[in-house]
Design a protein that fits this description.
2 domains; elongated; Jelly Rolls; 303 residues; 4 helices; 13-stranded antiparallel β-sheet
């Protein structure tokens, strides 16, 4: 069965075909299983010729398909052609800017992780679980995280794929506040942070250090200033031309390589690769830590 979007030009003939109670009942019967015209006529208590006429109208707009199948002789059997119809109430030819989805992700809503001490999860008012204990990353309260840090490892998220059926992704944009992770803090402490989307590496940013000593604008007062305070807002982007970090091309991986139209989810993982040159850990900031009032933001442009 198909799941396709239908255009503005498709609306009138389809609406005409559906503006009949008998044809609605035929679609309902065919949604259960294929039928031939005799079977439909019998269930609807209608003459064969009347039923055949209704079937023909549904065939004309591709709401059903009819095939010749062997049986008691060759017979025509009809089946439903769509299990979902989406009609866009606009003229596609007049659209120039395309469409955009925005998803705001709390940093604690990760699906998987690997954390090497020193590590921890911090809420707005206190640590979540024990410090330097990777088991804290699996506490139910992790969803309230406002700061996540580890000396080595990664963190992975999966989002629902909300790109409408039949539409094609043009660009995906990912932003988050990040920095390296050193004991306490250290301004000169490089770390190679790599973002992968649907298992495709899209680029590595080398964080120059772990920033502290000056309180982040959102960092709560109880958090000591000799600890990490804020990060830098980094932006990854993938489109038809390749992958970019802060608008500088870093990879030939394109939007088609991410297979965004084929999967029911969008997975992204950020962390330190096993073969990273600079393994200086990672801090990931939420809405109430650091300098930027956001968690992870994902924007998807599609057409």
């Amino acid at each position: 069965m198909k799941k396709l979007p239908l255009t503005f030009k498709d609306m009138l003939p389809i609406n005409k075909a559906l503006a009949n109670q008998t044809r609605i009942e035929i679609l309902h019967l065919l949604s259960e299983k294929p039928h031939n015209v005799n079977e439909l006529a019998e269930k609807l208590n209608l003459p064969f010729s009347t039923t055949a006429s209704h079937v023909n109208k549904l065939e004309e707009v591709d709401l059903i398909i009819t095939e010749l199948v062997p049986g008691r002789g060759t017979q025509k059997v009809s089946a439903i052609n769509y299990d979902r119809i989406v009609i866009d109430l606009f003229n596609n030819e007049e659209q120039t800017g395309g469409y955009e989805l925005t998803m705001n992700v709390d940093i604690g809503d990760f699906l998987d992780c690997y954390a090497v001490p020193h590590c921890g999860i911090v809420g707005e008012d206190a640590y979540i679980g024990a410090q330097d204990d990777p088991r804290a990353f699996f506490e139910p309260e992790r969803k309230y995280a406002e700061l996540i840090y580890f000396a080595d490892g990664y963190i992975e998220y999966k989002l629902p794929n909300r790109i409408p059926y039949g539409h094609k992704a043009k660009e995906i944009h990912f932003s988050a506040e990040l920095c390296s992770e050193a004991p306490n803090y250290k301004l000169d402490w490089p770390s190679d942070l790599t973002l992968a989307i649907n298992d495709q590496e899209t680029g590595t940013w080398t964080s120059p250090g772990d920033f502290g000593g000056e309180r982040g604008s959102l960092t709560p007062d109880w958090w000591r200033t000799n600890l990490t305070q804020y990060g830098l807002l980094k932006q990854w982007k993938v489109n038809a031309e390749g992958s970019f970090i802060d608008n500088e091309k870093v990879s030939d991986v394109t939007i088609d390589d991410l297979h965004l139209s084929e999967l029911p989810y969008i997975a992204f993982k950020i962390g330190i690769k096993d073969d990273a040159v600079n393994k200086g850990g990672m801090n990931l900031f939420g809405k109430k830590f650091g300098n930027y009032e956001q968690g992870i933001e994902v924007h998807i442009k599609y057409e």
